[in-house]
């Protein structure tokens, strides 16, 4: 077939009709996606497809394993930079056959993609030019969806901030607002906050939004940004929500680094709750985790959840009691005085011993001393501090006070 003019000139009632037209012109199955790889139209009555396309049509979005493979293979990075069609070789591991794709652009921003599944043929140079024309012709239709989506997102953002700041307090009212906005609810949720090294730029926000909208690892009901923070309402699906949230956080940070070369991302998440009136509480807890990570650094580097902070949850309260003179530990005072006078490390020795679950060999290795030396130091600690090393309550009290003193010094 030959076209003297643009084969896509004219009006189309819908993107589905447009997808069918592109399929008729190129003699191949066609799918049209938004910038987050959600399916918005596909050609009908195709005699041939592949597992990746079938899965996309069924779930109305490209499977995450396919997106990950296309990133690694280089197709998506190329589509985000070029206005030319990109040929994508087969990726059998994820059921992806040979394809050609082209980006749909609005000024300098990609707002969608057209994917053409090459069946038993390869698109000719002329057909590749037609595909570029198709991307231009699709722009206005996709842009209408894009604008409607943005208007809805503005209303959703306003609602989310009301929930984060406790401006809607009654559970019934919150659920009514969520239902009116067609935002799904879940049996359990937590607020997750990612904090970047500097305020987010518009480009970073696009990259983060793309990553959040394409992940299928964990349902994300709402998200917003605030300065250098990205705030999410996440809904764990299993009866091990802490494990699920930790895995999501580590995966997100790894992809930001791998795909967009963004490093130094800190993260904290609040308590996992079932009542949506506790969104504000979970948010405050997530911020508390980040504040502690900033003060304590490597000491709680691998801790993300408020529930996983252990004794650190109580440090601000304990510090206030200490400053009012209601919290003292003579044992620690004696050890600190001895260390200062004799240039020894008894406080550090006890802290390290407890950090390593009172495992003598591990502690000796970390301190780079002989186990006999460690045993001698522990005896000196017991004598100087008048501490019973067989009494767990006394040991825990001293351990907490050592950590609290470090926390106060970094305040």
Model description:
It is built from 15 helices and 9 strands. The protein is of the alpha+beta class and 411 residues long. The strands form 2 sheets. It has a 5-stranded antiparallel beta sheet, sandwiched between helices. β1 and β2 form a beta hairpin. It is elongated and about 95 Å long.
List the helices and strands and how they pair.
Elements: H1 15-26, E1 30-34, E2 39-42, H2 51-59, H3 64-73, H4 75-79, E3 86-88, E4 99-106, E5 109-117, H5 125-164, H6 171-180, E6 190-195, H7 202-214, E7 220-226, E8 229-234, H8 241-260, E9 266-269, H9 279-296, H10 315-323, H11 330-342, H12 346-355, H13 360-367, H14 371-385, H15 392-409
Antiparallel strand pairs: 1-2, 1-5, 3-4, 4-5, 6-8, 6-9, 7-8
Helix content: 40-55%
In spatial order, strands of the major sheet run 2-1-5-4-3
Strands, total number:
9
Basic shape = elongated
Radius of gyration: 29 Å
Q: Beta fraction of the residues?
A: 5-15%
Number of helices: 15
Measured between the Cα atoms of the first and last residue, the distance is 74 Å
Order of helices and strands: HEEHHHEEEHHEHEEHEHHHHHHH
Unreliable segments (pLDDT under 50, ≥5 consecutive)?
none
Largest sheet, strands/sense/barrel: 5 strands, antiparallel
InterPro entries: CdaR-like_regulators, CdaR_GGDEF, GAF-like_dom_sf, PucR_C-HTH_dom, PucR_C-HTH_sf
Organism: Geobacillus thermoleovorans CCB_US3_UF5
GO molecular function: DNA binding
Protein name: DNA-binding transcriptional regulator (Contains C-terminal Fis domain)
